[in-house]
Amino acid sequence: MLNNILIAISITLMYSAPLALAAMGGVISERSGIINIGIEGMMSIGALAGAAVGYFSGNAWLGLICAGIAGGLMALLHAIASITFKADQTVSGIAINLIGPGVAIFLSRYFFDGAALSLPVPVKLPKVLDQKYLQGTSFENFSIDVTVLIAAVVVIITWFLLYKTKWGLRIRAMGEHPAAVDTLGVSVYKSRYFCVILSGILAGLGGGTITLAIISQFTPTAISGQGFIALAAVIFGKWRPFGAYVACLLFGFSQALVVMLGGGTLSVPSSILAMIPYILTILVLILFVGHSSAPKASGVPYEKGAR
Amino acid sequence: MEISKDYAVQMRGITKIFGNFKALDNVDLDVKKGETHAILGENGAGKSTLMNILYGLYEADAGEIYLNGERMEIKNPSCAIHSGIGMVHQHFMLIDKFTVMQNIILGNETTDKFGIINTRKAKKRVLEIMSRYGMKVDLKRRIRSISVGMQQKVEILKALYRGAEILILDEPTAVLTPYEVDELLEIIENLKKDGKTVIIITHKLKEIKKSSKECTIIRKGNFVDCVNVEKESEQSLAEKMVGRKVKLSVEKRPASPGDIVFEIKNLNVTCERGLESVKNLSMTLRRGEIYGLAGIEGNGQKELLEAIIGVRHVDSGKILMNGKEIQNKSTRYILDSKISVIHEDRHKDGCVLSMSVADNAILSKYRERKFCINGFLNYEERDKFTDQLIKNYDVRPIGCKNTKIRNLSGGNQQKLIIGREIANNPDLLIAVQPTRGLDVGAIEYVHKILINLRDQGKAVLLISLELDEILDLSDRIAVIYDGSIVGEFNQEKANENNVGLLMAGGKFNDAQNS
């Protein structure tokens, strides 16, 4: 029993880490007033960049950094479209979601001799706790990926940034009433660019953690809905870092259920089990969100001096 | 006038073009240091545009700005703030969810290391400013939980906190109760004593007389005159503003009320946040009278209107039209009971901006047999009807029936909407802020129409935030506060003081007796 619980916790944390990273990206972008529905696409490109760089360089850390950069570049497109050209943010996000996986698979075929799968990275991102350290204790089956720690730290930093620093005050203000921030001499455009790109970097890191810590290679289904689940976590968490993190843990736990029930004696078809996280997402959105507390100006392009 | 150090602000030859519309054409402005200067003009005359240029929100296409005799380039609000200019916008630039303190320091935060906000230093400074100018605001409250008057003080504090020496107030009294207006005037007086320069944008003549020494008048983007306020009368100021003779007071005969048309009995309505917005409200309207409902925004007017026209559920109580209960009936049923509405927001509720004038004219009657046969619109009848409206209500330009209504001026849009609603031949016309955003000429016209309607034996329910309008037009005046009617006056007994007091939630012993 203890064993099962420990495994469940390990898997929950492992799967929630990429969600949490991406969700923090979502929180930052939306608090600044830009809806980032393109997280899924940014994660895809991050997943590929991470796996490819990790494979060719043999260094998973380098891969992770490149995953962030790739996600950030993708987000730059979104920022240009939705901030400079004031495009509809949802449409731009959908475009990112279509481009991301497409480009990722294209690049995979380019780098790996026509295969939509990358070759596995030689060394995955390390674990900070696993059998090596726990041999002989009753916690043998417990393990924590370094990405879990990274995610937790990012959540804390995001909270700190938003609620304790002057930049956070400005970001939150921008999502509510951008004109107010503008009239106080703070550039809305610049700050929103910063937030959207940061959001892409975090989403890219999220994608990278999947291919560098969880499955060790890029596959076309490596990113299948995690971006949207992260978005659901943002909403479920009421656009707050810790709220979103708790939601990510819940979704991570549902993923753990899939893994554990699938490996057990239960005779449920795996394809049904695989639906658990998505069904949970829908249920959560229906049951718990209710009155939304979305940033007021989220999704509205800011036009200087518009009357 | 020469450029000199004695002037806090001097603007020369300011021109601003939006698309192919010249908002400002070669406008000059001279504001003496340490004085209150008013900028007077109708809506759309370019007052706010001129001030937005001074504050760096717009860039002028031509012209120069001098502060204290020195040429300045003000490219953005940041420059303006650094040059000691502060601006309180007509629509407040405050973040609802933030506290007063957060709003004040936003963009100019006092911090420890790593950008961590530390409000201690800022707080000391804000408290000092408040005591110096006689303002009291609770810094810990959230903006959404304080009154509009308080919010305005927060805006003034914001500017002073940034070291403003020149303070621009854009239509500062539009949202205030009479008591709050007095408070504001006092603050302005204190600012002046301290050597600050204040610029007030307004179209209210009374306040100019009370607050300012000099006044610059702008009409349709052109500089008209800069006058000494003491030497002018309200009438002469108004004429300079509009460019022709105007009647400032409303002329009407005494009302001769007839039978009861419309009645509300003990109405209770909840708003979408689950709060009681209308509480046990009752009113009675007779034929041939204008019933004015005064009150500050957010005291249940919106919910009351929505309940009357059937878009909001009535929890309890009755609404009677010609003796027939209409509460919780469908909107179509209610409108067919001879009620017509002129909505507050004509762009949102009054018309469809992207449709033609003619289509807008039949928005509420397209179903009638005359305009629609077996589901097909009869364009001939529509055009005939529209031409009639355009002619009867002086909608300009003549022959605009096929242009999009978006391209008409606000006044002409409103004339068409009013004409359309009156063509329904209602027994009760509900007019919500019918002159909002209109210029003096159009206001005069709309008032005349409402009085005509009354003289024809119809009832008019006038809901307005403009106290002057209510006082001038209404035969009976009721005050709504916190969802209830807290007082009712006949027109001759009502004045700014007793109505204003009730609007602000005060008690007035004689209110019920009059």
Give a short summary of the structure.
Chain A has 307 residues and is mostly helical. Chain A has helices at 2-31, 39-57, 60-84, 89-111, 131-134, 146-164, 166-176, 178-183, 188-214, 226-236, 241-263, 270-273, 276-288; strands spanning 127-129, 144-145. In chain A, 51% of the residues are buried.
Report on this structure.
The complex is a heterodimer of chains A (307) and B (514). By secondary structure, chain A is mainly alpha-helical. Chain A has 13 helices and two strands, in the order H-H-H-H-E-H-E-H-H-H-H-H-H-H-H. Chain A has one domain: Orthogonal Bundle (ABC transporter involved in vitamin B12 uptake, BtuC). Chain A is globular and about 65 Å long. The N and C termini of chain A lie far apart (64 Å). The mean pLDDT of chain A is 91. Chain B folds into three domains: 236 residues, P-loop containing nucleotide triphosphate hydrolases (Rossmann fold, 3-Layer(aba) Sandwich); 173 residues, P-loop containing nucleotide triphosphate hydrolases (Rossmann fold), CATH 3.40.50.300; 72 residues, no CATH class. Chain B is globular and about 70 Å long. At the A-B interface, helix 7 and helix 8 of A face helix 2 and helix 3 of B.
